Amino acid sequence: MSLLPRRPHLPSRARWTAGLAAILALALAATVPTTGGKALAAQTGGPSHAPRLAPYYQQHVDWHTCGKPAAHTAGRAVARERGLACATVRVPLDYSDPGGADVALSVARKPATGPGGRLGSLLLNPGGPGGSAVDFLTGYAGEHYPEAVRARYDLVGVDPRGVGHSVPVRCLDGPGMDRWAATDVTPDDAADTAALRRSFHGFAEACRSRTGTLLGHVSTTEAARDLDIVRAVLGERRLDYVGASYGTFLGATYAELFPRRVGRMVLDGAMDPSLDARRLNLDQAAGFETAFRAFQRDCAHREDCPLPATGPAANGTLAAFLAALDRAPLPTDDGTRTLTEAQATTGIIAALYTEAAWPALRRALGEAMDGDGTTLLSMSDAYYERGTNGHYSSLMAANTAVNCLDAPPAFTGPAAVRAALPDFEKASPVFGRALAWTALICADWPHPATGTPHRITAEGTPPIVVVGTTRDPATPYRWARSLAAQLTSGRLLTYEGDGHTAYNRGSTCVDTTLTTYLLTGTPPTPDTTCH
């Protein structure tokens, strides 16, 4: 089943590095200051909960070599300056009952390498919801983030509650996810519609039974409050932060809750928190249509392009190809799995996140149109984070769980989807129908939404830099413009280009502008545009 995250998916650059060898993690000592009295009350959001949250804000953590218990780190002080370390930070499951159960958050840290004085901790979130910040740091950012930033900041990845290494949301097993990902999301009749509803309901029930109480406590507001505890545990007065895609919504929510504790904040590939779920999905349909048109225009100049040269003809060819898959899935080199229409749509969408994947998409489409669905299925698998052993990460489980808590469902039933289909198909003739039906996922969720769409102003923060890419498929440029206008201190940086997010993706202008801001606190001048 092709499930496009309502809060967009993990940025593609994190997936590029999935095959990198793990970095040897070395011990890092940590000294965590305690905080008391009035300072603690200010940190924890007021006097009513401050005493009960004090143990969380004052906790000491044991840093250890990532992947090994703390006992293995003895005697490695010489290597501590160069290595990564991991720790567990405890946060309350329910902030309305901070004396109740705990949640264990997984945290990884790469110390500043120098030269130059250390500026503090820079927390990174790669998106999702459901993307692992720990894996992003240990597998990519710790070695490949801009060198000047790595020199001056400790880079920190925190897996939000329900995500990755932090007690993840659990739903279907591997075979169940295989069936779910292959389910028809463009129903042609009542029987197809009923099958889709059963699939969504079964997914929700599996999440409820396998995840338990945590499932009702994975909202973005709770994750943002967790970040403030991590900030205090790290010994930082302010939160310096770079969030991409969904990470921008998490960062903006933190700024709304704790405006006086915001330091230097970059929100790259921005969400618009004021939009309801239906509008978010509709805007994303238009965004992927824009990205597909850009791909098609580039494809038309390539010898291996399997699509017609004109836009309408290309749309028609792709639509006919997907319709044929709906009737008869394609064989792949996996003897037990075929390529369905849903998986083909997912694979195409995955490749549209970055123009670097366009050559692979041309090849995959060409092979599939010749009868071999192997490469397109592998793209779908990568999007869902399915391993070759058939095991799926918690990405899509957490994605749905967070989205369904953060806002009321886009649609409450099939009739509402059918009424919206003309708008979705107008926004995207190829993808609109599938994206409308997948937006029905939250209708049967076991927990009602705890959040509502609203404008975020975050009065009292220093300048917050919001980055928008003009042809971003997953977070359309208009969202960045809107968020920058909502934030009292918002400063918009525009990247004229393709792909999802902009920082550290090849634009010297973007990288220089944002790195300068992170190092000096000087934001870009108003309405700065990079090409």
Q: Count the helices. How many? A: 19
**Secondary structure: number of strands:** 12
Residues in β-strands, percent:
5-15%
The level of helicity is 40-55%
Largest sheet strand order: 1-2-3-5-4-6-7-10-11-12
Q: What's the Cα radius of gyration?
A: 23 Å
Intertermini distance: 36 Å
Low-confidence stretches: 1-48, 69-82
Helix-strand makeup class? alpha/beta
Shape: globular
Please tell me the overall pLDDT: 89
Characterize the largest beta sheet: strand count, sense, and whether it forms a barrel: 10 strands, mixed
Keywords:
531 residues, alpha/beta, two-stranded antiparallel ribbon, 19 helices, 12 strands, disordered N terminus
In short:
The protein has helices at residues 12-16, 37-43, 50-57, 133-144, 147-152, 174-182, 190-211, 220-233, 246-257, 277-299, 311-327, 341-351, 358-369, 374-384, 395-406, 414-427, 432-438, 477-486, 508-520, and strands spanning 64-65, 85-92, 102-110, 120-125, 153-158, 239-244, 262-268, 330-331, 338-339, 464-471, 490-498, 528-530. It is an alpha/beta fold.
Topology of helices and strands:
Blueprint: H1 12-16, H2 37-43, H3 50-57, E1 64-65, E2 85-92, E3 102-110, E4 120-125, H4 133-144, H5 147-152, E5 153-158, H6 174-182, H7 190-211, H8 220-233, E6 239-244, H9 246-257, E7 262-268, H10 277-299, H11 311-327, E8 330-331, E9 338-339, H12 341-351, H13 358-369, H14 374-384, H15 395-406, H16 414-427, H17 432-438, E10 464-471, H18 477-486, E11 490-498, H19 508-520, E12 528-530
Parallel strand pairs: 4-5, 4-6, 6-7, 7-10, 10-11, 11-12
Antiparallel strand pairs: 1-2, 2-3, 3-5, 8-9
